[in-house]
Write a structure and sequence with these properties.
single chain, mainly alpha, 3-stranded parallel β-sheet, 10 helices, 53% helix, 5% strand, globular
C-alpha cells in the first residue's frame, strides 16, 4: 500500500500521520523478526532508533494458510518487539488471490474462500494477543463481489491502485475510528464513481458486517 494514499486520507480527515515502511517482496514475517536477516536487522535498528505509535505487520500472502505455525510464532515475536518499543501492534489482513490465478485452487476454491481462510488466521492471532486486525482483504473481497471496480493488477496477485486504496481506507478507519463512508478524499487516478464503491466496501467492513 503506497504511503501517499494513507497520507492523503489522513490529510483529508485533518489528521497528521508520518508513515514509514520496511518491506521486501516475497519476504515472510519470521525473516523480519530475525535480527540476523538483512531486513530483520533493519527492523531491529528502526526500533532502536525510533519511537512509534503504531506498527502494522502483514504476512506474505498465503503463508498464514500454508505455514500457520511459522506465521503465528513470527507475529508473537514481532509483537514483543513492538510492545518493547512502546507501540501498538496492528495486523493487516491482505487480499487473497484473485479468481483466475493459476494457484488459487491450492489455497481455496475461489477468492472469497481463500480470503475467509486468511481472515480466520489473522482473527485468531488478533484474539490471542488482544490486538486490532485491519481486514483489508475482507473489504477487497466484498468490493470484488459487489462492484465492477478493477482491484487487482494483471498478475491477479497484487492489488492495483483501487485495491490499495481500499486497504488504506480500512487501516485508517481502524486506527482513527472514522467510518470510510464519511471520508471525503480524492486519490489521483481513482474516479469519483470508483471511490464511492471503495468507500462503501471499506465502510461495510468497518461496521463489522462480516
Amino acid at each position: 500500500m503506497p504511503e501517499v494514499i494513507f497520507s492523503a486520507i489522513a490529510k483529508a480527515c485533518g489528521k497528521e500521520a508520518e508513515v514509514t515502511s520496511i518491506t521486501k517482496g516475497g519476504y515472510h514475517l519470521y525473516q523480519f523478526a530475525d535480527e540476523n536477516n538483512e531486513y530483520g536487522a533493519k527492523v531491529k535498528s528502526a526500533f532502536e532508533n525510533n519511537k512509534y505509535d503504531i506498527v502494522i505487520i502483514q504476512e506474505y500472502g498465503r503463508y498464514p494458510i500454508t505455514e500457520p505455525r511459522l506465521f503465528q510464532d513470527a507475529v508473537r515475536k514481532l509483537y514483543k518487539m513492538i510492545t518493547a518499543n512502546g507501540a501498538q501492534t496492528y495486523l493487516y489482513e491482505p487480499c487473497a488471490l484473485s479468481d483466475g490465478h493459476p494457484e488459487l485452487i491450492k489455497f481455496g476454491k475461489d477468492m472469497p474462500e481463500m480470503e475467509m481462510k486468511l481472515r480466520a488466521a489473522y482473527a485468531d492471532m488478533g484474539k490471542e494477543l488482544d490486538i486490532p486486525v485491519c481486514y483489508a482483504g475482507a473489504a477487497i473481497s466484498y468490493a470484488s463481489e459487489n462492484s465492477d471496480v478493477r482491484l487487482y493488477k494483471d498478475d491477479k496477485l497484487h492489488p492495483d491502485l483501487c485495491g490499495s486504496t481500499i486497504a488504506a481506507l480500512t487501516i485508517f478507519s481502524k486506527i482513527f475510528g472514522i467510518d470510510p463512508a464519511n471520508i471525503d478524499v480524492s486519490i489521483e487516478n481513482v474516479s469519483d464513481s470508483d471511490m464511492i464503491e471503495l468507500k462503501k466496501a471499506a465502510s461495510y467492513i468497518y461496521k463489522g458486517n462480516f
